[in-house]
Design goal:
single chain, mainly beta, four-stranded antiparallel beta sheet, about 0% helix, globular
Length: about 170
């Protein structure tokens, strides 16, 4: 597994002029690399050691909050969420409850992780979970979508998740 972040300095250089007809002309910014991890992957650096997992990761999603990357992953053997803290990848869960997670998507809202996923144990319907006070709890009924879904994506606004997904039944 590889999780990295580009390290660069962006020097904006917008210029504009006004004439009788209002016109704004922007010139592109200059991006200057400040660090190179390897010649093959310029501007990227590895964040911690690879995640110690069994098998190949089938699905993965990442979000960053307050400079801390969080990764949700699943494969045929395991699923979980880890955060990169103190130089290590550490679990951010107390037993993620779902047994067959596909297409997980994670988003953090004020330090609270939310995960939406295709729930393989519930007919591939959409389930959203929230982790709070050491426990994962479903938001609404698990498998709430009308039919099978794929690739859920979502955001959180004022603590309320908004979910979008590909409806495999009535698309």
């Amino acid at each position: 597994s590889y999780c990295g972040a580009p390290t660069y300095t962006r020097t904006p250089s917008p210029t504009w002029t006004e004439t009788d007809t209002p016109t704004i002309t922007l010139t592109p910014a200059t991006v200057t690399p400040t660090q190179t991890a390897t010649p093959a992957v310029p501007w990227w650096r590895q964040v911690g050691d690879p995640l110690p997992l069994s098998g190949t990761i089938n699905y993965m999603s990442m979000d960053v909050e307050n400079g801390i990357p969080y990764v949700v992953y699943s494969n045929n053997y395991e699923r979980g969420i880890k955060a990169y803290q103190g130089g290590n990848w550490v679990p951010v869960e107390n037993g993620f409850p779902a047994s067959y997670v596909m297409y997980p998507a994670i988003v953090l809202d004020n330090g609270v992780p939310f995960v939406a996923y295709t729930d393989g144990t519930l007919g591939s319907k959409c389930t959203v979970m929230k982790y709070q006070a050491g426990t994962w709890n479903p938001l609404g009924p698990p498998g709430f979508s009308a039919g099978s879904i794929a690739i859920p994506r979502f955001g959180v606004s004022n603590g309320d998740p908004v979910v979008a997904y590909a409806d495999l039944i009535s698309s």
